[in-house]
# Entry
Amino acid sequence: MQNTILIIDDEKKLNDLLTRIIGLEGFRVVQAFTGKEGLKLLQQEDVLLVLSDVKLPDVNGVDLVKTIKEKKPYVEVINLTAYGTIADGVRAIQNGAFNYITKGDDNDKIIPLVNQAIEKAILQQRIFELEKKVTKKYSFSGIIGNSKSIQEAITLARKVSVTDTTVLLLGETGTGKEVFASAIHYESERRLMPFVAINCSSFSAELLESELFGYKAGAFTGALKDKKGLLEEAQHGTVFLDEIGEMSLDLQAKLLRVLESKTFIKVGDTQTTKVNIRILAATNRDLQKEAEAGKFRLDLFYRLSVFTISLPSLNERKSDIELLANYYLKDFSAKMGKRNPKMDNGFLDLLNRHQWKGNIRELKNVMERVMIMADEDTLTPDLLPAEFKYDTVNHSAVDLATIERQHIQKILARTNGNKTETARLLGIGLTTLYRKLDEYKIN
# Structure
């Protein structure tokens, strides 16, 4: 595929000459004779490079550079002028021009410059497209749900994302707090900078401190060299602190300093380190009650909760269950190389009646398990875990032990009696399976 170059020059003879010269180098060239025509072609064509005269009938070519960069940041621009000035050249470069050259005197430079600019533009276009894909995946468009409660949460998050305000996300486990934090980051001015997420409940107080703030060599046994903490690694980006309620009071005091002064001291250091980061936090606890009970710093709570967003549980947005289930079915069927199945009414009814204590995370796990088990194009209630308490014959709740026995028998038949594989598919240990086989007298 030929790379496309746009030439904008109201002098037709020069425009035609440049078109011919550049066309002979294997490039596809499109012509415009005014700035307005050029911008229209920029939107219509897959242009990588613009050669623009400085003196156009309707706009200054130096100013046009800025407009082109705003519309397509990866496109490179070379300004051409009959009478070059240092001031114009400086302004062109400041506006984002690749180069600024004088017509006639610099004709021998055109082709080498074109090749250099095209090479840079191709790389920038790849990065731009990759960034678009990443942004789409992690932005609010990736959050699934049409219910009023989730849409209200999205609206709030969108509004705060364009600011640099600290946000506290509240919600049960599995409601998508990290997904929201990620979306806030990728729709903010910091989107091209790092997004660093850390679960505060996954570390001891000492380890969490060194992970967050880093340490100096010799700070403790095993600290053989200086180490940057996650706060420093996220410079100019966003740090997401999940399960912030699990953080020790000592660490809370240090985090408060970061929020107030954008500085901290590494473990074993005496000098302060300055950072420019945005902090997002999340918890499934009532931090205000925790603070009143002395288990969380009240001053930190107030700093974190400048803007609070409460995420609804899946049980509060039942109307989104079918949409979410279909999304995960499509995703897992593609990963497993299976046809995307449909849910029958009984299957969907059970999903809607289930109490989702693990919320969206639980639903995702159930759909993955179902796709592993599914052999047909239609999903039926018997594919769901035993706790859904479903009688596939009369569609009524039955004794859980009976359902569990029937489910184990079904999986055993599916695996041709392979007990190790049966235990794996059931999500239980092999010893537990043998105990249940004995309990239900299954041979």
Summary: The chain has a mean pLDDT of 90. DSSP finds 18 helices and 16 strands in the chain. The radius of gyration is 30 Å. The domain at 139-312 is CATH 3.40.50.300 (Rossmann fold).
